[in-house]
């Protein structure tokens, strides 16, 4: 993950035009966006200081300077927090082992969601636990343990593009969240290996990773074309797990009385009765 700060700053500069920040654009530009000297001018720092910062050679940088750069580059809250993290690698705590087990109380909580698909994500967006509906929706139990990972499923699993009608948006959000994780855990060798494998095997992943977008997946809506019950529109909430900062609880929350809620109920019935597909599901997809 070397050079993360410089790569991030260059990618953010590229999306801001001089006109966006009230500057006149003189001469032909070899690359889009703001020049380094323009960012330095607008942030109130010397050009040499900013260049050294972007090259990873700068001294410890203050909150005031980072805030000024974030303002110039129009970073949102997630991007600003990410900037502070990657700008201060020496201030990070020693990496802790990744959590791989989910405590019994959290597993019990998963099972209490009897009308909502739910699962627990760990570092690298590994899927660590799920309830019956989460399994019926995503098929986690049928995956080899090493493939229970959301980025791996989005980019390498057969049929992913058919499963997600909005696959380009799902793919971009997945990479942006993984990039955020990479900033928090720059020494995670397993994460680096995952990024390397996906970059080799998926041109789409490689392109999105190079774009350096960062985004926290806290809530949203995901559309799925489930092979058993058909089209689903699933709002979701991502909740922090108390006492386990690396874990997230993802719960899909179909609107009560909606067609999706009815199909999720049918999915629950199907998962409870076994592999035979219910007649109602075949009619839904007819």
Report on this model:
The protein is an alpha+beta fold. Helices cover 48% and strands 13% of the residues. The chain is built from 14 helices and five strands. A five-stranded antiparallel β-sheet has the order 2-1-5-4-3, with helices on both faces. A hairpin with a 2-residue loop joins strand 4 and strand 5 (244-252). The longest helix is centred in the middle third of the chain and has 18 residues, at 167-184. It starts with a helix and ends with a helix. The relative contact order is 0.11.
Keywords:
single chain, 286 residues, alpha+beta, 5-stranded antiparallel β-sheet, 5 strands, 48% helix, disordered C terminus
Topology:
Elements: H1 4-14, H2 36-43, H3 47-54, H4 63-72, H5 77-87, H6 104-112, E1 118-121, E2 127-130, H7 132-138, H8 150-156, H9 160-163, H10 167-184, H11 189-201, H12 203-210, E3 219-226, E4 230-241, E5 244-252, H13 259-273, H14 279-285
Antiparallel strand pairs: 1-2, 1-5, 3-4, 4-5
SS class = alpha+beta
- Biggest β-sheet description: 5 strands, antiparallel
Alpha carbon gyration radius: 22 Å
Number of strands: 5
SSE pattern: HHHHHHEEHHHHHHEEEHH
Q: Mean pLDDT across all residues, rounded?
A: 87
Strand content: 5-15%
Low-confidence blocks of residues? 280-286
Query: How many H/I helices?
Result: 14
Strands of the widest sheet, in order across it, are 2-1-5-4-3
* Molecular shape: elongated
Gist?
With 286 residues, the chain is of the alpha+beta class. Helices cover 48% and strands 13% of the residues.
